User: Which sequence fits this backbone?
């Protein structure tokens, strides 16, 4: 499912938390720190992104 929305920040496993040194981004599925713009093959879009993808597909 490669598209313009595919990045860690739109994945349901992405978690952001503010720490002492600033924002910390973590992938709950993979178990390590990540960045919002990174892309992995295990991407599972959040519900809002799934809806946008479905709407775009209907228009095509």
Assistant:
């Amino acid at each position: 499912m490669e598209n313009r929305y595919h990045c860690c920040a739109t994945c349901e496993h992405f978690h952001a938390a503010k720490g002492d040194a600033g924002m910390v981004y973590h992938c709950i599925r993979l178990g390590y720190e990540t960045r919002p713009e990174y892309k992995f093959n295990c991407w599972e879009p959040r519900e809002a992104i799934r809806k946008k993808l479905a709407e775009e597909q209907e228009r095509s």
Remarks:
- The radius of gyration is 13 Å.
